[in-house]
Amino acid sequence: MDRVLSGMQPSGYLHIGNLMGALKNWVSLQERYDCYYFVADWHALTTNYADPSIIKEYTRDLLLNFLSSGLDPEKCTIFVQSQILEHAELHILLSMITPLGWLERVPTYKEKKEEIKDRDIGTYGFLGYPVLQSADILIYRARYVPVGIDQVPHLEITREIARRFNFLYKSEVLVEPEPLLAECPKVTGLDGRKMSKSYDNAIYLNDSRETVEQKVLTMVTDTQRVRRTDPGDPEKSPVFQLHKVFSTEDEQKEVAEGCRTAAIGCRDCKKVLLKNLFAVLEPIWEKRRELSENPGLLQDILEEGNARARKAASETMKAVRKTLDMY
Ligand code: TRP
Q1: pLDDT digits over 20-65, tens only?
Q2: Rounded to the nearest whole angstrom, what is the distance from the C-alpha of residue 287 to the centroid of ligand 1?
């Protein structure tokens, strides 16, 4: 079985955009590949080094959501990056051979530097983000990396670093990985923009039923539709955008038609969406509750995943050390 690897940063609570966009895809891949999935807690430090206290909480939330959304520890390996020290060792070796120019050119680096103004991210660690990510991937000799389109430049650097390493040290230890771009639905946030924790417009997997209900019922719809009797345009409503991800085709047709003819009100339309959201969230909440009530279980699963990951990583490092042939 080919190996797949991917990671998520614990930089916020997981929301339904992350669930539909990435996690669902991870769950389906575990049936066909030898999958390694991890929480990239060191990566979260690159932008959040001043306040690491929250990273642990977000890490726990991610692990709980990995498991409650269907990742099966019998089928895939789940671990936490900072527990596998070999990533750091490979990272330092790769940092020696990575030209600065490659890092300075990465679009996410330039964008984030523009975007983040409340913290100083002119750090060595932040510039080196893609080198650490390369170490994460190369240490498992992963063939495929399921990621969003924004991560493709990082994968390109990973391939270049692997090639350079193998060339310099006349080695075949490192495997050039390929991105695995899944077709994933774009999940709109409560305000019509892309769902994102930084816009404060998300529905989180750990929101309560009441919170989800309240968030949806207070969403803006077509602002031109003032009275219940006014016809509306579903395309102007973020509620309808969510229907596109969570409702059946028939339901979408029904609410769109009802909106255009004023046969239904916004509240009716939202009720249909809520029913479908709950159908997705309830099984997740249920599993999450089970796991939370049994803290030893999460710990055991994690320890087993960490041990499996450590074994694979240390095998690669043995070969890497041999290649460099140092004292
Ligand atoms: N950079 C990725 C993101 O922000 C997270 C990540 C870290 C990652 N290491 C990885 C993804 C290795 C895939 C493989 O989404």
Answers
A1: 999 999 999 999 999 999 999 999 999 999 999 999 999 999 999 9
A2: 26
Percent of the chain scored above 90 by pLDDT?
94
**Position 295 pLDDT exceeds 90:** no
Cα–Cα nearest to 15, from 219, 159, 200, 216:
200
Question: Count of alpha carbons within 13 Å of 85, Cβ hemisphere only?
Answer: 0
**Domain co-membership, 62 together with 171:** yes
The tally of domains found in the chain comes to 2
Ligand 1: does its nearest atom lie under 6 Å from the Cβ of 147? yes
Q: Does residue 43 have its Cβ closer than 6 Å to ligand 1?
A: yes
Flag whether 197 is in a domain.
Answer: no
Domain that holds residue 225: 209-288
The radius of gyration of the chain's CA atoms, rounded to the nearest angstrom, is: 22
To test the pocket of ligand 1, the residue of 9, 18, 129, 140 to mutate (highest count of ligand atoms within 8 Å of its CB) is 9
Query: How many other CB atoms are found less than 10 A from the CB of residue 37?
Result: 25
> Is 179 near ligand 1, meaning CB less than 6 Å away?
no
Q: Which atom of ligand 1 is nearest to 129's Cα?
A: 1
320 lines ligand 1 (CB under 6 A): no
CA 114, CA 109: separation in Å to the nearest integer? 9
Q: Are residues 153 and 19 in the same domain?
A: yes
Q: Residue 278's domain is classified under what CATH number? A: 1.10.240.10
| Residue closest to 125 by CA, chosen among 199, 40, 7, 58 | 40
**19/70 same-domain check:** yes
* Mean of all residue pLDDT scores within the chain: 96
At 121-175, the pLDDT tens digits run: 999 999 999 999 999 999 999 999 999 999 999 999 999 999 999 999 999 999 9
Flag whether 35 is in a domain.
Answer: yes
